[in-house]
Amino acid sequence: MANKKLSEDEKSVLEQFMIPFFHLEKRFPLFPGKLNKEAESLLLGISRDELIKNRANLTENSKQAALELLKEDEIIDLLEDIPLDGEETIVALGDSITEDAQGWFEILRQVLEIGVEDANFTFVNSGVAYNTTADALRRVDRDVLMHEPDWVFVALGTFDVQRLSIAQDRTLLPLSETWENLNTIQEVVGNRCENPILWVTPTPVIEELLVENPIYEYSISERDLVEVRELIAGKTGGIVDPRGLRMGENEAEAWNYIGDGLHHSLSGHMNTVREVLRTMAEVGAKNSHEHGPDQHQH
User: Fold this and answer.
1) Helices (H) and strands (E) in the chain — how many of each?
2) How far apart are CA 153 and CA 193, in angstroms?
3) In angstroms, rounded to a whole number, what is the distance separating the alpha carbons of residues 180 and 157?
4) Beta strand pairing status for 218-219 and 163-164?
5) N or C: which end of the chain has fewer CB within 10 A?
6) Tell me, what's the pLDDT at 13?
7) Which residues of the chain have pLDDT under 70?
8) In terms of DSSP H, where are the helices of the chain?
9) How many whole angstroms separate alpha carbon 11 and alpha carbon 133?
10) What is the pLDDT of residue 4?
11) Which pLDDT does position 166 carry in this prediction?
């Protein structure tokens, strides 16, 4: 059956807000047909070839962003300071900002694969769009622990503080539950991972753009995000950008976001990668100091 021709508006929404954040195998991990690109393309209303082309474009965007970062002297210096031997398994547990097919974790993958000598890393993107800390906690065993990771990023909290359009007087999860969920993730992952957890703080959103977008039935406010950042800043491990300033020192800059004011543009994701590499280097230096010079160095 031929797909009906999409309008330009539908095509724009699909390419900008859906394809980067929808991977069938993540939403339905137990389905035997989860890797069937034909089935996935039918769900999205496009052809298999269009889906493959879109995904290839997103991968190429992340590669070009990585190559731009690798032109920066600081990035090259940081890569020298991070204790990597090129064989590590690196996992990111997050929401749609992590799942993004041209997002920070995909750019980081390219930076490390290109920038580290003899790289043979295993990268596992365990971001699932719109996950709260409760959603992510449910899948920690399957999506993190089973991979026996050497490094784990936890990038959660944004969607805990949704205020639904029909119930603006409360966040979707109370702060106490976010705190308990993060503590449990820290406990179960920390016991199985040699390196400290790297916590990626949620960034501000541009609230007026988010509220205006007809796709979303919720708002997210900075006052709620600040409380989540404060929880994360108190965790043990590496804290990536504890104050959430990487999208703009004084206020979130629009060019670091796509049109919804929530998800990040390539420049925004590149800002996250810079902060991630700085934190990895800091954690590596601290580990080396505590445990002596027997750490792997590339």
Assistant:
1) 13, 7
2) 11
3) 12
4) antiparallel
5) N
6) 83
7) 1-4, 288-298
8) 8-13, 24-27, 37-44, 48-69, 73-81, 96-99, 104-115, 133-138, 140-143, 175-190, 207-212, 222-233, 266-291
9) 31
10) 61
11) 95
> Which pLDDT value is given to residue 27?
86
Reading the block at residue 59, the tokens are 């991968």
Cα(46)–Cα(2) distance, rounded to whole angstroms?
9
DSSP conformation class of 10 = H
**257 pairs with which residues across the strands?**
264
CA–CA distance, 205 with 270 (Å, rounded to integer) = 17
Sign of CA dihedral 96, 144, 107, 280: positive
Alpha carbon distance 100, 109 (integer Å) = 13
CA angle, corner 209, sides to 203 and 211, nearest 5?
Answer: 100
CA separation for the pair 109, 273 (Å, rounded): 10
Sign of CA dihedral 92, 154, 267, 77: negative
Residues in the chain: 298
- Show the tokens assigned to 24: 């069938």
Q: What's the CA angle centered on 77, arms 73 and 79, to 5 degrees?
A: 120
- Each domain of the chain, given as residue ranges in start order, spans 73-291
Q: How many CB atoms lie within 10 A of CB 104?
A: 31
Please tell me whether the overall predicted TM-score, pTM, comes out greater than 0.70 for this model.
yes
Query: In this structure, what is the dihedral angle of CA atoms 234, 238, 240, 243, given to the nearest 10 degrees?
Result: 20
Q: Are 80 and 297 in contact (CB under 8 A)?
A: no
Dihedrals phi, psi of 125, to nearest 5 degrees: -90, 100
Is it true that domain 73-291 has CATH number 3.30.470.20? no
Give 135's DSSP letter.
H
